[in-house]
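In response to the reviewer comment on reproducibility (Comment 2.3), we provide here a single inverse folding case reported in full, input and output, so that an independent group could reproduce the run without further information from us. The C-alpha cells appear first.
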C-alpha cells in the first residue's frame, strides 16, 4: 500500500494526488498535476511538472522576457489608438501594414498578427 504523505505546511492534512492545479503566467492558464493538502488546500507541484510548465511557457514566448510594457492609449477622431512599443515591433518584425485579429480575453485585449 502507498504510504500517505502528510502536508509539510500544516502537518495535519494528507496530500491527495490531483491533476487540476492551476497556475497563471502572463494571463495564460496552465493546468498541472501535483498534490493538494486535504486540510489547508496548499498545492504542491513536483519539480518535473513545474519544469514542463516553464518549457511550454518558453515555447509560447511567455518566459524570460520583459513582457509587460506599459503604454497609454490616445484618442483620435476615429477612435482609440494603441501604439506598439518598438521592442515588440522589432521582436515580431512588424512592418506596420499587417492585418491583426483582436480578441477580448477577460479584461485583456489580445492582438494576433495574421501573416
Ligand atoms: Zn496542509
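Designed residues, in position order:
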Amino acid at each position: 500500500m502507498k504510504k500517505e504523505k502528510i502536508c509539510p505546511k500544516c502537518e495535519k492534512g494528507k496530500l491527495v494526488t490531483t491533476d487540476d492545479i492551476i497556475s497563471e503566467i502572463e494571463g495564460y492558464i496552465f493546468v498541472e498535476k501535483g498534490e493538494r493538502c486535504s486540510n489547508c488546500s496548499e498545492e504542491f507541484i513536483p519539480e518535473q511538472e513545474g519544469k514542463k510548465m516553464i518549457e511550454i511557457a518558453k515555447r509560447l514566448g511567455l518566459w524570460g522576457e520583459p513582457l509587460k510594457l506599459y503604454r497609454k492609449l490616445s484618442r483620435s477622431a476615429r477612435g482609440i489608438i494603441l501604439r506598439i512599443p518598438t521592442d515588440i515591433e522589432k521582436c515580431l518584425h512588424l512592418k506596420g501594414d499587417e492585418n491583426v485579429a483582436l480578441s477580448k480575453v477577460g479584461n485583456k485585449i489580445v492582438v494576433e498578427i495574421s501573416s
